[in-house]
Amino acid sequence: MKMKMFNRMTVVLAFCLCGGATIGAQPNIVLILADDQGWNGLSIPMDPKVPESASDYYQTPNLARMAEDGMRFSQGYAAAPVCSPSRHSIQFGMSPAKTRVTCNKPNYIQLCDPKQALPNLIKQADGQYATAHFGKWHVSIDPGECGYDESDGPTDNKEGNSKNIDDPKCTFEVTDRAVAFMKKQAESNQPFFVQVSYYADHLPFRPSLEMKEKYKALPPGERHSDSVFAGMNEDLDRGVGRLLDSIDQLGISDNTYIVYTADNGFAESNSKLHGIAKRKAWPLSYSKGYVREGGIRVPFIVRGPGIKAGVCSDAPVVGYDLMPTFLEWINPEFKLPEVTEGGSLVPVLQHAGEGRVKRKNDFLVFHYPMGEWPSLSSMIVGDYKLMKIWARDRVELYNLRDDISESKDISTAYPEKAEQMDEVMMKYLDSINAMPPTQKDLEIDRMGELMMKCKTLKGKKSAAGKGKKKE
């Protein structure tokens, strides 16, 4: 009898180790993507050494909680300064330059094979996974074709505006669908990947009635003072809080990785569609639409098993690193597609934020050759950042360690460094068949510069005239 009982226990144990426990052991992954949220859009600093990397007005207690429980990346980047290119990069693990999706209305897409999209690769790595996408999609291929079992379909910005005064950006609607999906998978003991892509903080800025009233009563900050944006931003934070609470309530927090980031930097305001949010993004320069720091450096937080809490890493990370990271969490032996450019964050996450992400290239390139903003490209290598202004056929060089605001062009002091970096970037863009700026885009940029100079000159003359009258 004892021998039979021993044999049965042995069979049960073997089943758990080899099969039954595998499902429970596989991690769940939740990717939360904010829209147009700048680096200093949270109430907790993205870099503790830079106090201005936190807002002096916006309140985001849930994201602060997530950051304190996980790891922040002070140099976290969106792959592009606008929405659609960044979102393609997350799904395909490549830079926008390589996918040729460099603006919100791309015409010459390459290498975006839906069979090699993130959710399809997850299923190839482990067929047990259920996958879902809720919220804003803004990718040129249908989410179902990319491998999502559930989704809201090929949504864009327009689906994110509701007449519900308590949920005008559909934040809680999207959250509820994500929570229902997670609950269903947890109850069936099935591992899952879900991407929750909020419509906030995209224009038009629309807060819930509760948040609208709250921020009207609060004193504004010196850098941040828009109560409408602040209310919408905290609604977004409340959505994240519901996700975090649901993960805890479902009892899966010990086996769930959560990643939070944004698709690009701040937009300015409801009244200025393509304005530069200089004051809002400070100490970073420029904002959405520009490959300067204000357009591409964004919040980047990771929480989950084995990740040391309360750590801030200075390792540069980018949106197209997510695909390799998720696949390593799921199946470390899985072979990535040859076209993949991103690298896994896992070694950095496992070593308390120390070390660097290993990619095919030792640089990051941000390429915006055409669209509604000026044609610019930039490259980051170590502490240095090269900025190419296509319309002027010139480059600028910055040391981000000493000059995060990109205010001191050192290209004349280090001409060889600038020339060498420009040569590397141009060879890279040529090697991947990247789209160059069109002649029309360059002419528009030059005209725009001329108009700005005339506007500045007119302003100076007006100020001088007022000064003479006073005398």
From TrEMBL:
Keywords assigned by UniProt, alphabetized: Calcium, Hydrolase, Metal-binding, Signal
The family this protein is said to belong to: Belongs to the sulfatase family.
Record-linked Pfam families: Sulfatase
Region (Disordered): 145-164
Stretch forming the signal peptide: 1-25
InterPro entries in alphabetical order: Alkaline_phosphatase_core_sf (IPR017850), Sulfatase (IPR050738), Sulfatase_N (IPR000917)
Domain Sulfatase N-terminal: start-end pairs: 27-330
Name the UniProt record assigns to this protein: Arylsulfatase
Record gene name: atsA_131
Keyword Hydrolase: yes
Necessary cofactors: Ca(2+)
Molecular function via GO: arylsulfatase activity; metal ion binding
Basic and acidic residues bias: start-end ranges: 155-164
